[in-house]
Every structure is written in C-alpha cells, then in structure tokens.
Amino acid sequence: MSWSVYLSGEIHTDWREEIARGAEAAGLPVVFSAPVTNHAASDDCGVAILGPEEDKFWHDRKGAQINAIRTGTLIRKANIVVVRFGEKYKQWNAAFDAGVASALGKPLIIMHGEEHNHALKEIDAAALGVAETPAQIVDILAYVIEGRLAGYSD
User: Fold this and answer.
1) What Rg value do the Cα atoms of the chain yield, rounded?
2) Cβ contacts of residue 120 below 8 Å, gap of 6+?
3) Which of 5, 64, 85, 115 shows the smallest number of beta carbons within 10 Å?
4) DSSP β-ladder status, 3-9 and 129-131
5) For the CA atoms of 143, 144, 145, 151, what is the dihedral angle to 10 degrees?
C-alpha cells in the first residue's frame, strides 16, 4: 500500500523537500501532496484564470476559492495530514487546514518550534503527533507505516 501524506503550511523553507528526501531514504511507500507553494501563483490564480478584479478583496477571494478546490480534495484523499507552522509568518491557512483535517477525522501531525507552543495549544491538542523537525516527521511516518523505530530491532 502506498500512503498519501498531505503537507500543509508555511511555504518559505524547504521542510517539504526534507521530509520527502527522508522518506525516500527510508524507503517508505509514501506519495506526498501539497498546496501550490509558489506564493504569487497561489495569490493570483483566480484573477489569472477568471479575469481581473479592481477590489483586492475579490481578487483574494477568487484565488482562495480556486485554491480550496485543490486543498480540500487533497486533504480528503490523504491518509495523514502534516501541518507546519513557521516562525516568521502567521499561517492562517495552515490553521484552517488543520481544522479541516481534524473535522474529517484525518490523522494530524503538527510541526512547529517551541515558540508556538502556547499559540497553537488547541491545534496541538487535536493532533496525534506534535513535532519540531522534518526528521521527526519522517521517524513518525516510518513507525506508523512500517512499525520501524530507530534504535530498536525485532
């Protein structure tokens, strides 16, 4: 069986690639999906496809709705949802994705630094795992998918 893992959250670091490389190195049967991570394309997809908007509210709304088609579909198809909260920006979309995944009963793993422990306490409480690094995410996936725990043998 191939596992589907949706990687939601901040788009300004290479955490997704780190997880993908780690999963590949571990030989895990995982297929990753994610939102569109080109910030400008994500923001402008609605007006690029459906036409310009003078009001920034409607510009953003068109893009958000088109992005929601992708995001919602991939979250529903996922076996596991990983949501990363970065240090620099407030990721409201990541919090929303975590809520959607939780409401759909998807196993949820949250990743963030210690500085967000208080702000994300409710989201962390809904998660089945809270990690700080991409390597920890890979270790969780290895354990969940194959029952492998680093440092332990059968």
Assistant:
1) 16
2) 85, 110, 112
3) 115
4) unpaired
5) 10
Separation between Cα atoms, residue 116 and residue 124, nearest integer Å: 10
Q: How confident is the model at residue 88 (pLDDT cuts 50, 70, 90)?
A: confident
Residues with Cβ within 8 Å of residue 59, at least 6 apart in sequence: 44, 46, 47, 52, 53
pLDDT for residue 150 is more than 90: no
Q: 3-state class of 103 per DSSP?
A: helix
CB-based contacts of 144, cutoff 8 Å, min separation 6: 80, 107
CATH topology of domain 3-36+77-146: Rossmann fold (3.40.50)
Instruction: Tell the residue number behind the tokens 């590949």, with chain if given.
Output: 24
3-state SS assignment for residue 41? helix
In angstroms, the CA 67 to CA 43 distance is: 9
Q: pLDDT tens digits for 27-72?
A: 999 999 999 999 999 999 999 999 999 999 999 999 999 999 999 9
Hey, where are the domains in the chain?
A: 3-36+77-146
φ, ψ for residue 138 (rounded to 5)? -60, -40
Measured CA to CA, the distance from residue 33 to residue 103 in angstroms comes to 19
